[in-house]
Specification:
single chain, 471 residues, mainly beta, 37% strand, Methanethiol oxidase, Se-bd, membrane, selenium binding
């Protein structure tokens, strides 16, 4: 457990599982592509069931600009800094996917009412690194903040990483060695015990900005590789081409055990999960371990509909893997005690594109005997499909939001643009496995003061299983 002489976070992942229950969460809210000409904002949500404001947005921090497209977030310090008593987890890093601004939000002074600390303007990143479109933010044991980028300032594909000073939050430069880059960028996870970092690919920023087109995929504007980096030398040593089964590899997760030389990556378009691992020779390889079959359909943009795996998580004890199928509409729980042979132990539908009564007709389904019913929680029919997920430290509660990215939301779930997204809570059976919707919990972002908004990633003030890395 954390102590007064230690830094932020927890000594081990198993210690983190004994941490306090979450009482508030931070959720970025996006207005880009909704027709509302307002800035994105950071919402603070009360998730304490004993609170009179349970399931309510209790604070909103608007950004100073419009059309940023807030997306993912990270911390200035996490469990990687546990041994440094001079560090505090008190700043939330909010990169903007479209504008390339980076917002640093003070969550430490008043956790229930965060305030702006600093704005890193795009020009600072452009001039000092030649990179743009920041995505994933992780803190480092050095005290620096590292952020992956998806492109160059012109919107072309270019995978790289930038470093911010952990005190001033000035752009220090790029992380990778001079001349090093990969075709596309997106997520990353580092593991110093094995001197490795693994990064993933989405696509060309200026191409995916407004929506998905099959022609762009066929023209090579989307990725299908994961990249292995030498952590100390900061060079890419391997690029593992996952092929057609690994189209658009997005979220990547090493096992939380810092000695484990393996992890998982979810591939969106092909709807498969790959396990990557260190071989006996000392290099890295990948194998497909979960396959979500596409459904043959009519009344949709393509004759086959993929599940579209958009987010994956591992429980802190590395026992369960969770992921969301944004198009099919389900969240799945797998027992990965044997990482090479995951076993499906839980599944729940919370929306999606194949619902009963919907415009899409399913003509062949290798998994389901009947189409799922629309989910209604507290009188609200859930729009969209399950997207970002976040697990409580003890593994018993899974939070889910339904917005993927405003340009794709507008294309695939236009009703969510009009109604706003939601945040739900899924109860988890941590003994035998199993998922069920908590019908007491609903945060309806369709009722926000300035109009319906798109809510994205969930963060806890004390850290969580997708932001903390142990060394």
């Amino acid at each position: 457990m954390a102590c007064g002489h230690c830094g932020p976070g927890f000594k081990t992942p198993l210690d983190a599982m004994k941490g306090p229950r979450e009482e508030i969460v931070y959720v970025p809210c996006i207005y880009r592509n909704t027709g509302v000409d307002k800035p994105d904002y950071l919402s603070t949500v009360d998730v304490d069931p004993n609170s009179p404001t349970y399931c309510k947005v209790i604070h909103r921090l608007p950004m100073p600009c419009v059309k940023d497209e807030l997306h993912h977030s990270g911390w200035n310090a996490c469990s990687s800094c546990y041994g440094d008593s001079s560090k505090r987890r008190d700043k939330l890093i909010l990169p903007s996917l479209i504008s390339s601004r980076i917002y640093v939000v003070d969550t430490g002074s008043e956790p229930r009412a965060p305030r702006m600390h600093k704005v890193v303007e795009p020009v600072d990143m452009f001039w000092r690194t030649g990179q743009a479109h920041p995505h994933t933010s992780h803190c480092l044991a050095s005290g620096e903040v590292m952020i992956s980028t998806m492109g160059d300032p012109a919107g072309n594909g270019k995978g790289g990483f930038i470093l911010l000073d952990g005190e001033s939050f000035e752009v220090k430069g790029q992380w990778q060695a001079e001349g090093e880059s990969v075709p596309f960028g997106y997520d990353f996870w580092y593991q110093p015990r094995h001197n490795v970092m693994v990064s993933t690919e989405w696509g060309t920023p200026k191409v995916l900005a407004s929506g998905f087109r099959l022609e762009d995929h066929q023209a090579g504007h989307y990725g299908h590789s994961i990249h292995v980096w030498d952590w100390e030398r900061r060079v890419c040593t391997q690029s593992l081409d996952l092929g057609p089964d690994g189209d658009i590899p997005l979220e990547v997760r090493f096992l939380h055990d810092p000695s484990a030389p393996q992890g998982f990556v979810g591939c969106a378009l092909s709807s498969n999960v790959f396990r990557f691992y260190k071989t006996e020779k000392g290099d890295w390889a990948a194998e497909k371990v979960i396959d979500v079959p596409s459904k043959k359909v009519e009344g949709w943009m393509l004759p086959e509909m993929p599940g579209l795996i958009t987010d994956i998580l591992l429980s802190l004890d590395d026992r369960f893997l969770y992921f969301s199928n944004w198009l099919h509409g389900d969240i799945r729980q797998y027992d990965v005690t044997d990482p090479r042979h995951p076993k499906l132990v839980g599944q729940v539908f919370i929306g999606g594109s194949i619902l009963k009564g919907g415009p899409v007709r399913v003509i062949e389904d290798k998994e389901l005997k009947e189409r799922p019913k629309p989910l209604v929680v507290q009188g609200k029919r859930v729009p969209g499909g399950p997207q970002m997920i976040q697990l409580s430290l003890d593994g018993k509660r899974l939070y889910v939001t339904t917005s993927l990215y405003s340009g794709w939301d507008k294309q695939f779930y236009p009703e969510m643009i009009k109604e706003g997204s939601v945040m739900l809570q899924i109860d988890v059976d941590t003994h035998k496995g199993g998922l069920s919707v908590n019908k007491r919990f609903l945060v309806d972002y369709g009722t926000e003061p300035d109009g319906p908004v798109l809510a994205h990633e969930v963060r806890y003030p004390g850290g969580d299983c997708s932001s903390d890395i142990w060394l």
